Amino acid sequence: MAAIVEFKAVGRNYGAKRAVDDLNLELRTGELFALLGHNGAGKTTTIKMLVGLLRPQDGAVLVGGYDIVEATREAVSVLGYVPDQPYLYDKLSGREFLEFIAGMYGYDARQAKVLIDREVGRFGLASFVDDLCESYSHGMKQRTVFAAAMLHNPQVLVVDEPMVGLDPQSIRLVKDLLREEVSKGLCVFMSTHTLAAAEEIADRIGVMRQSKLLFTGTVDELRQAHPDRQPSLESLYLHLMNTEDSSSEVPPAGDSHAALGEDAKSP
Ligand SMILES: Nc1ncnc2c1ncn2[C@@H]1O[C@H](COP(=O)(O)OP(=O)(O)OP(=O)(O)O)[C@@H](O)[C@H]1O
């Protein structure tokens, strides 16, 4: 099956600063991929290139087979995006915001109502969806933005830090919903600092450090590559992050399971 998301030798600088370097990665339908990395590793830059907010300087990003730069409209129609800072219009209610989004995707009022009712139920918005967005807490905003991102039945959902600012009940709701949609074929690309959440819901993780993707694979594969380490993802992650100069030792991410295994055995 063809990949639904492809990063092909993607690179991006800010001035002299290399933010993302030679990123190669393929994601498939029905897969939840979590990108981990310290502050400044390049996760948000990667996400912004994936959703078309930043142009890669090197390589290409394809979504649903469409190049996000060359065929932005087609690529974006396949995508839903939840940014780390939820952005809503203060003077609209949540429902009006969702109606605006539905209109942007070309749905008529009747179709929009069906879709909005579905999302209101799915994300538990009923008690506040008719209030002005300016009165919402961070978690209410985040849930409304999730609803907006899912409204047009995207094939790929891109989420930057999905759990930040949510209460435990909302975190459970989002985790369960993501897994349910992934089981129906949605591809989710999320960045997170919440290792426990990544371990719980991700099919594969990627670990990024200083602009490079050091590892891609399952948490079990990461454990097998480091049999001498404690089995928690936190311990493995911190080991990977603190390994001296590992970015120059490991080959590209596609081969990194083996590379990390060798790295772990080396003196
Ligand atoms: N607009 C910008 N101008 C200049 N440098 C930037 C800009 N945005 C990001 N950078 C730099 O690019 C690098 C990657 O940043 P990015 O925001 O992608 O990291 P991140 O992994 O998302 O970090 P965090 O976990 O803190 O959100 C960092 O060194 C950062 O300082």
UniProtKB/TrEMBL annotation:
UniProt keyword list: ATP-binding, Nucleotide-binding, Transport
ABC transporter domain ranges (all copies): 5-235
Gene3D superfamilies, per the entry: P-loop containing nucleotide triphosphate hydrolases (3.40.50.300)
SMART domains in the cross-refs: AAA
Molecular-function GO terms, alphabetical: ATP binding; ATP hydrolysis activity
Annotated region described as Disordered, given as residue ranges: 243-267
Pfam families (alphabetical): ABC_tran
PANTHER family noted in UniProt: ABC TRANSPORTER ATP-BINDING PROTEIN ALBC-RELATED (PTHR42939)
Full protein name: ABC transporter ATP-binding protein
Lineage start: Bacteria, Pseudomonadati, Planctomycetota, Planctomycetia, Pirellulales
